[in-house]
Structures are given as C-alpha cells and as structure tokens.
Amino acid sequence: MGEAEAKGSSSKDKRWSLQGMTALVTGGSKGIGHAIVEELAGLGASVHTCSRTESELNNCLVEWKAKGFQVTGSVCDVSDQAQREKLINTVSSEFNGKLNILINNVGNNIRKPVSDYTAEDVSVLTSTNFESGYSLSVLAHPLLKASAAGSIVFISSVGSAMPANFGPIYGANKAAINQLGKYLAYDWAGDNIRVNTVAPALIKTPLAQRAFEGFEEGIKTTISRTPLGRAGEPEEVSAMVAFLCLPAASYVTGQVIFVDGGMTVNGLFFPAPTLKPI
Ligand SMILES: NC(=O)c1ccc[n+]([C@@H]2O[C@H](COP(=O)([O-])OP(=O)(O)OC[C@H]3O[C@@H](n4cnc5c(N)ncnc54)[C@H](OP(=O)(O)O)[C@@H]3O)[C@@H](O)[C@H]2O)c1
C-alpha cells in the first residue's frame, strides 16, 4: 500500500469508528437502548448506561463484559432530577469530565383515551419522555463541550408526527423532543455539539409488546400501513443512532430522522394498487 493510500484508509477508518470516545445511553438494559449500547460499544466507544432494575442491568453488564465491550452501568430513574444529577456526576468521574455522546433513549407510554388521563399520569409521562432528555442534556452540556466533539441523539417516535388512538400525551411529549433537538442543535453548534433525533415506528421491544397487549389487530393495522410491510428490529434503529454519532456524520445536526419502514410517507393509495396503463 502506498503512503497516500495508507493515509486515506486510516482517515476513512477514523470517520467510521468511535474508538476512544465516551457515551452515556439511558435505558440500556432492554429494547432499543440495549441495541444502542451494543452498537456504540462495538464501534469502540466506552459506554455507561442506566436503568431502574438493578438485577437486569447487572445481567447485561456481565454479558457485555463477556463480549469484550467496555460498558459500565448504574441504577437511575431518569424521571427524577436528583437521580439525573447523580448519574451525570458518576459519568463525569468515570470519563474524566468529558463525554462525546449522550443518547436520551428512555421513554414510556400509558395507554388511555385522552380524557381519562389524570394530572399524575401527565406528570409521569412528561418527566419520563421530555424532562429527562432535556435535563440530562443541560447537565451533560459542560462534559459534551469539554470533549470538543459532542453528539446528542434523542429517541422520539412516529407518534410525534402522526396521531394514534392511544398515547396523546406521549405523542405530544415526543413532538416537543423533536423541537427541543432543533433548538439545542442551534444553541450548541458553537460548542461543536451536534443534536439529532431518531423517530422509530413499531420496533420489536418489550415496550411495544406492552403497548399492543390485547390489541393484536393494532399490530396488523400498523404493519398494513407500513410500506416495508413489517415491524422493525432494535438494531435497525441503533444503526441510525450510531451513524449520527460517528465523525462521518460531522455535518448532520438539527435533524429528525424517521426509522419507520416508510410509515410517515405512506402514500395516497396504500398498499399501492396495480393500475391498468392508460
Ligand atoms: N418499541 C417501539 O415500538 C418504539 C416506537 C417508537 C419509539 N420508541 C421509543 O424508543 C425508546 C426505547 O423504547 P423501547 O421500546 O426500547 O422500550 P423498552 O423495551 O421498555 O426498554 C426501555 C429501557 O429503558 C429503561 N427505563 C424505562 N424507564 C426508565 C426510567 N424512568 N429511568 C431509567 N431507565 C428507564 C428500561 O429498564 P427499567 O424498566 O428496568 O428501568 C429499559 O432498559 C423510547 O423512548 C420509546 O418511546 C419505541
């Protein structure tokens, strides 16, 4: 290999690697968060993750160690401000005051008609789906800035763009996240912090299983309105998240990217009918 070719391939390797970078992924013990932890760690990042259930988190940490990934974890309920502050303190001491990547993944829904929500439901949904990501981003801002190349990814939902007959408060909070991501991208561009949002449709995770419990018809209808004709896998979301964190995505900020099998495109006549040429 010539010198120029060797130089080219090493700069290409750097664009597609997270080697030497640090990441915090919230809600990494299951579902999409679990896949994101594995994706980032597989690309070379040192990852810290959290969830509320200690035993499940510890099982994951053992599995990741066996796979050779550098992952640590701590118990944290991200809907609680004191616990969020503790989490960022832990991450700061672990990564020496610098953080390259923050993935605000945690989210949850309460399935109810809109008029049945209590004030408590609204408060729980808002602190889990909106305040957690907002507050963790603000708390992590000094660490992301200190890394000199920061990236935040929010996990939103197609529910942020398309109403469904369950989850109005969830959807409204996810829409707020889409907009928050744009504001932070604008505010923090000068600190070289990029901020993007990934909005999935139906993905095979424990959350989706809970959401559609006793509503199998809902899964069929959802899939029938998805041009790719199937639900997604967590790895199909984590791949997009990882791309947004890579140096290769260095000019991408302030975007909301739907990973939805085409659901938000849908089309006027869907599924597309076969028409006689005229
Ligand atoms: N799956 C889908 O079809 C779908 C579609 C669109 C958007 N999304 C979004 O994708 C994200 C991940 O969803 P998922 O389907 O992977 O969910 P999931 O299967 O329920 O997994 C959620 C993860 O977050 C943790 N978690 C939940 N609440 C937490 C809290 N308050 N504090 C800390 N950790 C918490 C869970 O562990 P513990 O329960 O032990 O805390 C678990 O590790 C969410 O933002 C969701 O809204 C999912």
Question: Would you kindly provide a written description of the structure presented here, covering whatever features stand out?
Answer:
β5 (150-155), α6 and β6 form a beta-alpha-beta unit. Strands 3-2-1-4-5-6-7 form a 7-stranded parallel beta sheet, with helices on both faces. The chain has helices at 3-15, 31-42, 54-66, 81-94, 119-146, 168-188, 206-211, 216-224, 234-245; strands at 22-26, 46-51, 71-75, 101-104, 150-155, 193-200, 256-259. It is α/β, with parallel strands linked by helices and 278 residues long. Bound molecules: NADP nicotinamide-adenine-dinucleotide phosphate.
In short:
The protein has helices at 3-15, 31-42, 54-66, 81-94, 119-146, 168-188, 206-211, 216-224, 234-245; strands at 22-26, 46-51, 71-75, 101-104, 150-155, 193-200, 256-259. It is α/β, with parallel strands linked by helices and 278 residues long. Strand 1 (22-26), helix 2 and strand 2 form a beta-alpha-beta unit.
What key attributes describe this structure?
TR, seven-stranded parallel β-sheet, single chain, 278 residues, binds NADP nicotinamide-adenine-dinucleotide phosphate, alpha/beta, 9 helices, NADP, oxidoreductase, globular
